[in-house]
Structure formats: C-alpha cells, structure tokens
Amino acid sequence: MAVADIISKVEAGGRLTFSEALELWKEAPLWQLSQLAVKAKRERSGDKVYYNRNFHLEPTNVCQFECKFCSYRRSEGEQGAWDYTMDEVLDIVRQRKDSGATEIHIVGGVHPTHDLYYYTEMIRRVKQIMPQAAVKAFTAVELNYMISKAGLTTVEGLQLLKDAGMESIPGGGAEIFAPEIRNEICPQKGSAEQWLALHRAAHSIGIDSNATMLYGHIESIEHRIDHLMRLRLLQDETGGINAFIPLKYRSANNSLSHLGETSVIDDLRTLAMSRLILDNVEHIKAYWVMYGKTTTELALAFGADDIDGTIDDSTKIYSMAGADDTRPTMSVEDIERICHNAGFTAVERDTHYNQI
Ligand code: V47
Ligand code: SF4
C-alpha cells in the first residue's frame, strides 16, 4: 500500500499490519509521523502528559548474566560491585520516607543467592516504612529466575510477591524478542515467550505491568515491528500493560560500545511508530533519564504522553551507560516546564495512571 493510503487508514482508526508499519516507518516524512502520533495521543489523553513522584531502589548490580549492552552489572567482588544489606536498603527508604514519592521502582541484577523469600521480605519491610507508596518491582527476567529457583509456578511466585505488597512490574528485560537478536545480545535472559508468559501470568492475578524495547543496536526495523506486534497481541489478550517504553541503547562502558548510538530522528520515529502500532496501549513513556531533557521535550511532539518521574538521583543504570545526567533528578517545576514548552499540561499520576 502507498504511504498516503496507509496514513488514511491510520487516520480512520485502522490497525497497522506488519507490511504497512514497515512502509510507514521507512518512508513517511517525519512531520507526518509526528502529526499521526500526536493525534492518536490526543484521542487518549488530550493535553495531559503524565508524571509521578518516584525513586528507584537498586539493591545490587551483582548479576549472573552478561548481557552485552549492559554497563551496570558486575560479578561478585569485582570493583564497582554493590550489594546492599537489607538494613542498607531499608535505610535508603527511610531517608526518602517523607519525599512525597508515590512509587518505589525496585530492580537490580540477577543475583546468585538473593532469593524469592529474601525479596518478598524486602518488599514487606519497604511497605512498612512507606505504606503510601506503590512498589513496582523486578523485571520479568529477575522474576522468572527467582520464582523458578524457588520451585514454584509463575502464578504462585507472583502471588507471594503480591501478598507482600508488589503492585506492578516494570517493563525491563524485553530487549528485542526475535531470537536471532536476543541470542546475540543477551543469550542467558530467556526467550520472548518466557517474558510474555510472566507478564501474562501477572495480569491474570491483577498485577499490571509496563513493557520496553531496547533499540538502536544490531536489530533492524523489522525486528522492532515484530517486537511491538508481539506486545500488541499480549495486550489484546490481557489488557494489563499500562505503558510502553522504548529504551534507546546507550553505548558507554559495555561490550557493544563500538556500535555507537542511533540518531535523535530514529528515536522520534520509533516513538511515533510505537504509538501507532500499539493502538491498544494507553501510555507511551519517554523515559527522560535515558533520552535527556531536550529529546524528552521533542518526544512529546511524537506521541509520548508520559515522561516518568522525579527520580531524585536514585538510578545508576543509565548514567553508567552514558546518559547525560549523571545524577538524574527533576523537580515538579522542571517537569511542568518541559510539558508546557511542548504544548501540554503536566498531570501527576499514581503507578496505575490514576490522576492525583
Ligand atoms: O531491560 C540496560 C535497559 C532495562 C542499557 O517500567 C539499557 O517504568 C539502554 O526496564 N542502554 C531496565 N538501555 C530498565 C527498565 C525501565 C526503565 C525505566 C522505567 C521502566 C518502567 C523500566 O534497561 C533493561 C535494558 O533494556 N538497559 N542497559 C543500555 N546500555
Ligand atoms: Fe544482568 Fe540485567 Fe545487566 Fe542483563 S541487563 S547483565 S540481566 S543487570
């Protein structure tokens, strides 16, 4: 189909097929993708752009796996490794107890010995300190590892975590689903089917989640579309995905550094195409920590309706990989200014996208 016909189809609310998405991604002028994506965004959230008050908790960067794109992981005892004790983790939470945060995002490495029961205890004790904050915790990869090691079914393991206070699952670990890329960049991480099954199981017991895609390394546009379509299928089935977050590969200090980084134009096309392909996912998040503040402002002109949160200098994953802000923090005033400059209104939300 010609680009003009595909655009008319999208404007009329039609769903993109694989070949239509490919044609649009490769051939549509940037300004037209912007227009289409913003129209789709405005139909869902009008002038609103969401943010939350949050912080990350990264209990350890000790990881069993060695994903080639990762700048964060260390082996046990290696220089730069950290592995906080339970008391140290709880101290971090105590220090932020009155910060106004409504969400604590907990992720770390796939640790060789911290198990499911250690992490349920961690969540329980974190919630005792900050009962008002939602715990959004652990990528599907960490969860699959700790649950299978405990010898439980996925639903049994997730139920234990839910009972301890875990309300939601972040989107990490998805990377690129296609096996030929996955086996190359993160061979130990488990398959696409395992990632999707974990999220499906979570949705079935009332835990909602996010989804990500790591792009801008060795994958092709076809691999990205395949990834987005697998997510669209899951969302048709469960409706449990809150937000999709395209994650730009950042190239500092990892085994793929020689690849460099993709362009801002590619970032914007990827955002817009994510919005258009994922017609059943309400929110597209421009994660400002990864893009930097300037690209985030632009992202709002390409279909994003969420920029994540205040962060409060609590995450190292992106600064270790070369992101602009080495101590990422945004005040609510900064967030409001960025949204206003892009022509939108900042709206504070909770983890489940209820307006606060
Ligand atoms: O799965 C690791 C990515 C993810 C690099 O759900 C990298 O709200 C780029 O999932 N360059 C974890 N990306 C982070 C994540 C996330 C972040 C923010 C919000 C949410 C949410 C989820 O980070 C990993 C991987 O895809 N990652 N290394 C890198 N060098
Ligand atoms: Fe480990 Fe996660 Fe880094 Fe992979 S991306 S090496 S699983 S910390």
Bound molecules: ligand V47, iron/sulfur cluster
CATH hierarchy class name: Alpha Beta
Spatial order of the strands forming the largest sheet: 2-3-4-5-6-7-8
CATH superfamily: Aldolase class I
The CATH architecture is Alpha-Beta Barrel
Largest pleated sheet: 7 strands, parallel
User: Which runs of at least 5 residues are low in confidence (pLDDT < 50)?
Assistant: none
Shape designation: globular
Topology order in helix (H) and strand (E) letters: HHHEEHEHEHHEHHEHEHEHHEHE
Tally of individual domains: 1
First and last CA, distance: 44 Å
Structure, described:
By secondary structure, this protein is of the alpha/beta class. It contains 14 helices and 10 strands. It has helices at residues 3-11, 18-27, 30-45, 86-95, 116-129, 140-149, 154-164, 179-185, 192-204, 221-238, 264-277, 288-291, 293-299, 332-341; strands at residues 48-52, 54-57, 103-106, 134-137, 166-169, 208-215, 241-248, 283-284, 306-309, 345-348. The strands form 2 sheets. The chain has a 7-stranded parallel sheet. A 3-stranded parallel sheet has the order 9-1-10, covered by helices on one side. The mean pLDDT is 96. The structure holds ligand V47 and iron/sulfur cluster (SF4).
Provide a concise account of the structure shown:
The protein has 356 residues and is α/β, with parallel strands linked by helices. The chain has 14 helices and 10 strands.
Question: How are the SSEs ordered, and which strands pair?
Answer:
Elements: H1 3-11, H2 18-27, H3 30-45, E1 48-52, E2 54-57, H4 86-95, E3 103-106, H5 116-129, E4 134-137, H6 140-149, H7 154-164, E5 166-169, H8 179-185, H9 192-204, E6 208-215, H10 221-238, E7 241-248, H11 264-277, E8 283-284, H12 288-291, H13 293-299, E9 306-309, H14 332-341, E10 345-348
Parallel strand pairs: 1-9, 1-10, 2-3, 3-4, 4-5, 5-6, 6-7, 7-8
The structure holds ligand V47 and iron/sulfur cluster (SF4).
